[in-house]
Amino acid sequence: MAKQAQDMTAMFKDMMGAFPVDTAAMEEAFKNSATLNxxxxxxxxxxxxxxxxxxxxxxxxxxxxxxxxxxxxxxPADYAKAMTDFASSSAEMAAEHMAAFAEVAKKMQMDTVELxxxxxxxxxxxxxxxxxxxxxxxxxxxxxxxxxAK
Length: 150
Fold this sequence. Notes:
The protein has a domain at about 55-120. It has helices at about 1-20, 25-70, 75-150. The chain has about 150 residues and is an all-alpha fold. The longest helix has about 70 residues, at about 75-150.
């Protein structure tokens, strides 16, 4: 019984040796994945930076407009006019800044699509090359096994 177990171990060892595993493909896939992740992070960080700039500008503009409201007025009607002007300028600022946010989102989306398409193309090429290499290696190993069996 122990002899049979040793024979099976030797058989599996020989079989695995006949079909070597190429770790270079795995290393290349890891490098490609890391590169893609770096590019995706760059796109996200750039969008976050631009969004922060837009938010900061919006806040500064709002504070500037509120300064005008907080000043003492000579007539009660001037307070109503100041509030109306503030509401109007706030609506304009909102439209302007929301459009800026939309542009950031649009650019991020375009950059992400470009990255994913490039990654898909690269992966397809890598998979084709790996499949061809594996087929060649399997054919070679099968020929060797057939020749050894004769």
